[in-house]
Amino acid sequence: MRLLRLRVPAAALVAGCLVAGGCAPLDVHSALDVTQITTGWLDVGLDDLGRNKIVPTISFRLQNVSEARMRTLQLNGVFRRCLESTPGQEAAESEVSPADLEAGTCPGEVQEWGSALVRAVGREGVEPGDAVGPFTMESHLGYTGQQPRDEMLRHRDFVDVKVELFVKHRAEQWSKLGEFQIARQLLTQAGSS
């Protein structure tokens, strides 16, 4: 009788894992698609010294392309300035944040240039085929200047930025979902959501 009692909870645990979307770690590359992506430079108004300020931002949706409901997803966006290459020298490389040729991104600096954390999906989950969002992430760091914001994007000292997007499913480790180059376009608060 005692042996039978031990088997029932184990069977219930296995059934619970299957119903909840599996106990195996989530393969984010095959389970999630990042869609409706907009990147650019958000006009955040004036800084404390009265200068115009723009910051890099990304807006996107996540679609569950798996066959299981997914619960408890967190997102982390890490912004990095691009490494600049000196004319006549080899192209810059980064061991910490290499260029992603498929995504068309630059090699990034070692130092983060801001980050954003978002709780994307709670315990209610997202059903197969459904999408959640939009999510907007922006860096607190950016460029400031007296000139108009659109001129800031064309300034000779302007350095491009990319964002690396990471996802955490339940208590699993963070996994890279993708990376995106921030477009040199000016966005307003209304246009970025």
Structural class by helix and strand composition: mainly beta
Mean pLDDT: 84
**Based on CA inertia axes, which overall geometry fits?**
globular
Q: Strand-and-helix sequence, N→C? A: HHEEEEEEHEEE
Report how far apart the termini are.
Answer: 59 Å
> What's the count of strands?
9
Q: Gyration radius, to the nearest Å? A: 21 Å
Q: What does the oligomeric state look like here?
A: single chain
Main sheet summary: 5 strands, mixed
- Our count of helices gives 3
Descriptors for this entry?
5-stranded mixed beta sheet, mainly beta, 3 helices, 193 residues, 9 strands
Short description:
This protein has 193 residues and is mainly β.
Task: Please provide a written account of the structure.
The model is unreliable at 1-21 (pLDDT under 50). The strands form two sheets. Strands 1, 2, 5, 6 and 9 form a five-stranded mixed β-sheet that branches. Strands 4-3-7-8 form a four-stranded antiparallel β-sheet, with no helix packed on it. The radius of gyration is 21 Å and the shape is globular. Helices cover 13% and strands 38% of the residues. It has 193 residues and is mainly β.
SSE blueprint:
Layout: H1 2-19, H2 28-31, E1 32-46, E2 52-64, E3 73-81, E4 115-121, E5 131-138, E6 143-145, H3 149-152, E7 161-169, E8 175-181, E9 186-187
Parallel strand pairs: 1-9
Antiparallel strand pairs: 1-2, 2-5, 2-6, 3-4, 3-7, 7-8
